[in-house]
Amino acid sequence: MPGLRWLKIVCCAIVLVGALVLVARFLIQRSAPEPVVPGSPQLQVTTSFYPLYYFASRVAAEHAQVRNITPAGAEPHDYEPTPADIAQMYASDLLLIHGGQFEPWAGGIISELAGHQTRVVAVGERLATQQLILNDQPVLDPHVWLDPLLAMQEVEIIRAALTEIDPANAVSFRQNAALLTADLQTLDSAFRAGLNNCAQKDIVTSHAAFGYLAARYQFKQVAIAGLSPDAEPSAGDLAGIADFVRNNNIRHIFFESLVTPKLSQTIAAEVGAQTLVLNPLEGLTTLEQSAGKNYLSEMNNNLANLKTALQCP
Ligand SMILES: [Zn+2]
Question: Residue 230 Cα, ligand 1 centroid: separation in angstroms?
């Protein structure tokens, strides 16, 4: 029956066209740009490394999309931004860096961004005042974020920068900054109480990251490496540190999660000391991130380990 066959062909064609229309509609819906939801993040903020990312995320909250340049597990002292990182900096309203010599790449980027829409703020530059001698040269110690009181000043600098760019959310930035400052005040009180009347005054660290923390709470650091974890100590340096550990009855040697613990372990094995983590918070590992760790939790962990090493009551 040719009529029935034509009916079947027409039916099949209708089903096929219907299916094609559905697929096309699905594809169009998927590729359409997402509608702008009122109150969704508008401000694009980029930070060079973890502490600035944590502080900016807390202060900006839902009013900005904050992205970090140095990836999880990488060490910011020698990180080189990728072309995608640089594109992201260009697309940002605000770029927060530490400043000084901390980000070796920053100088070039800042001059490239001059006259562009991205505002660049060097959050830690004015706060870094302590000098260290490194290879017989005086250098400014950048690690201000490890002192809770200097961290509060960083929070204020970030709040002011966000407010200047987005004055409509000034009240929200002020409230969020006040909450973070209260957390940092609690941290400061915990360090003051926890590191009181300790039997030991010296710690041995992996790299010289804890100068501001040590000055604030009155202990001393001896660093195995220099100001950056890449600085290689000589055999003579290592022997000197081993002697220092023996002569001062130091029982714990610190290492950090982003750098190989080999040097700390070598000295600890030589003098019969134990190793413990002291986190300079220059970044979190992927594992620390997925475990929900952050600046505050790691600073509290640092305090617990410092109490052990400094033999505090
Ligand atoms: Zn460092």
Answer: 10
Please give the torsion angle defined by the CA atoms of residues 208, 212, 215 and 216, in that order, rounded to the nearest 10 degrees.
-140
Centre of ligand 1 from the C-alpha of residue 27, in Å = 49
Decide: residue 204, CB within 10 A, 0-12 exposed, 13-18 middle, 19+ buried.
buried
Query: 286 CA to middle of ligand 1, Å?
Result: 19
pLDDT at 38 > cutoff 60: no
Cα of 33 from ligand 1 centre, angstroms: 42
CA distance 227 to 268: 21
Question: Which residues of the chain are in CATH 3.40.50.1980 domains?
Answer: 43-190, 194-309
CA of 152 to the centre of ligand 1 (A): 19
Which one is predicted more confidently, 182 or 9?
Answer: 182
Task: Give me ligand 1 centre to Cα 228, in Å.
Answer: 5
Alpha-carbon gap, residue 41 to 90, rounded angstroms? 18
What CATH superfamily classification does 194-309 receive? Answer: Nitrogenase molybdenum iron protein domain (3.40.50.1980)
Domain covering 43-190 in this structure, CATH number: 3.40.50.1980
Q: How far is ligand 1, taken at its centre, from the CA of residue 101, in Å?
A: 11
- Residue with the bigger pLDDT between 30 and 197: it is 197
Name residue 44's beta-bridge partners. 65
CA 31 to ligand 1 centroid distance, Å: 44
Instruction: Using alpha carbons, list the distances in angstroms from residue 250 to 72, 213, 241.
Output: 32, 19, 11
CB-CB neighbours of 5 under 10 Å: 9
Q: What is the pTM of this model?
A: 0.84
